[in-house]
Amino acid sequence: MLCKSVRPVGCTVHRSVGVVGMGLLRSKGMVILAGNSHPELVKAVCHHLDVRPGNCLVFFRSSRETEVEIRETVRGRDVYIIQSGTKDVNNDIMELLIIAYACRSACARKVIAVVPYLPYSTQSKRRKRGPITSKLVAKMLCASGINHLITLDLHSKEIQGFFDVPIDNLRASPFLTKYIETYITDYRNAVIVARNPGVVPRATSYAERLRLPLVVIHGEERDESDNNDGRNSPPLDQSVVEKRTTQVGLELLPMMIPKAKPPLTLVGDVNSRIAIIIDDIIDDVSKYVTAADLLHERGAYKDICYCNTWFAQSRCTASTGRKSYR
């Protein structure tokens, strides 16, 4: 039995059920659909475009399966699906896939996915013996019937190559630089901080736009498992090694030295300055608290952290409350 607006007896719904984010612009044949990830964003987009909400239902069945009902025609229309990643990331992906497949099955002319934060975008490299999960997600999105993807500040530009459809990778930097110039009165006395060397290209863009110096935090608090990239498998039994060496006739290569864990150091001067930390995704607050502590030790009197696309509270320590940390 399906769980809809009227709940049958004995059926439990673990997620809010309702009509979410559809708008229709009849004159241009455009339809705006959305899942349950960010209804406020959908309302803001529809209000800005002056389109009325449509009629779409995304809900859980009693078996916890996701079901979608599109209650108006999309035949021959361009469908925009607004769905971002949240803490419930796996359900967000399934909703997006099912909505896109439903639109393709209903003969939509084009299906354009608007995904501000693309889930699993941080898993774009193979580590140890793990998969490249972002490539799997890209293949699933393309197979569901999506013809075009619009996203914001991909964690890695190379992810665009995983898709077989066009991608628009928009930038948030023009809006954030304008915000810094408007709301930070003493921003000329600030420095742009890259929390790790991997953020340097992104932070350099902000530093050049704002004409501010760049500071880099080198080294990172990592788990010991991250120091080993998986290339050094456990050694074989000595008898097997000797047999293989005799057959091949080659000397064994020496084992590679494991990667060292560098200490947390600061490259640049932040004394008596505002430290503006730039990053695209904040998924572990404790790392930024550690960076803020280091900046305060080096003389920074205020820390401001800007995140381009996504923020998720995870391991947040009590020291966050006493920092000027936003």
UniProtKB/TrEMBL annotation:
Belongs to the ribose-phosphate pyrophosphokinase family. Residues 30-145 form the Ribose-phosphate pyrophosphokinase N-terminal domain. One of its GO terms (molecular function) is ATP binding. NCBIfam families: ribP_PPkin. It comes from the Eukaryota. Keywords: Nucleotide biosynthesis. GO terms for cellular component: cytoplasm; ribose phosphate diphosphokinase complex. This is Phosphoribosyl pyrophosphate synthase-associated protein isoform 3. GO terms for biological process: 5-phosphoribose 1-diphosphate biosynthetic process; purine nucleotide biosynthetic process. Transmembrane segments: none annotated. Coiled coil: none annotated.
